[in-house]
Task: inverse folding
């Protein structure tokens, strides 16, 4: 079984209180920590990697992002999915090739740009092209940005999710969906559902699983929490 197949299998036949929990490493060192802790796979956060590289979220050059992903995949023996934002304007074939060259077994792709939702039908067509280029070599996680773009009606997220699943997405990610609507999303979406957890706040991963999450990711939350801990350590080193 190849890396993508192994990763894909982790998303299926899960108990409701046992979602796939995917920590988000921002560099090779954090990836090793998570892998050594026993997590079966990892998923990089674009914002966390951007912070580690000294960029604002959404401003990481493609070459730097893919290089960072490659350093992470080389550091661990578990499958790694990569958040590559909106695909950096790359043609589907080139995007897939660069993901594979970096050692990623999956990718996260957003359906908004510059704070504006993309046309869902056009985006679905593009996702279908990515799927065609990737075959079964890449696990495709299609982000649904309605909630973070101010569209609170769950039906709009479900409609987009249906288009993306039909286009070949392995999983959909209604980022920012309130916990209260997760059962409705779960009932209306075919296939795995990715849910964002907020470290130290909100429902636990197990609780999110009970509400409908197939897998749980953390965005840049773990990197931000580590940065706060490091800041406290640094403050303690200053002469008093």
Result:
């Amino acid at each position: 079984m190849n890396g993508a197949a192994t990763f894909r299998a982790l998303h299926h036949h899960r108990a409701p209180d046992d979602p796939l929990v995917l920590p988000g490493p921002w560099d090779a060192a954090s990836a090793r920590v998570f892998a050594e802790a026993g997590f079966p796979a990892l998923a990089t956060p674009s914002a966390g990697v951007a912070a580690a590289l000294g960029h604002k979220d959404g401003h990481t050059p493609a070459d730097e992002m893919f290089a960072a992903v490659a350093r992470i995949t080389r550091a661990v023996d578990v499958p790694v999915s990569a958040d590559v934002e909106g695909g950096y304007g790359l043609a589907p074939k080139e995007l897939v090739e660069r993901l594979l060259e970096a050692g990623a077994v999956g990718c996260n792709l957003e359906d908004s740009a510059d704070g504006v939702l993309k046309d869902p039908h056009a985006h679905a067509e593009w996702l279908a092209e990515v799927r065609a280029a990737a075959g079964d070599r890449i696990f495709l996680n299609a982000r649904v940005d309605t909630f973070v773009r101010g569209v609170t009606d769950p039906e709009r997220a479900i409609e987009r999710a249906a288009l993306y699943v039909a286009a070949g997405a392995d999983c959909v990610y209604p980022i920012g969906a309130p916990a209260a609507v997760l059962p409705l999303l779960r009932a209306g979406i075919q296939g795995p559902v990715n849910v964002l957890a907020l470290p130290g706040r909100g429902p636990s991963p197990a609780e999110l699983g009970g509400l409908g999450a197939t897998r749980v990711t953390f965005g840049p939350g773990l990197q931000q929490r580590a940065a706060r801990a490091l800041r406290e350590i640094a403050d303690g080193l200053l002469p008093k």
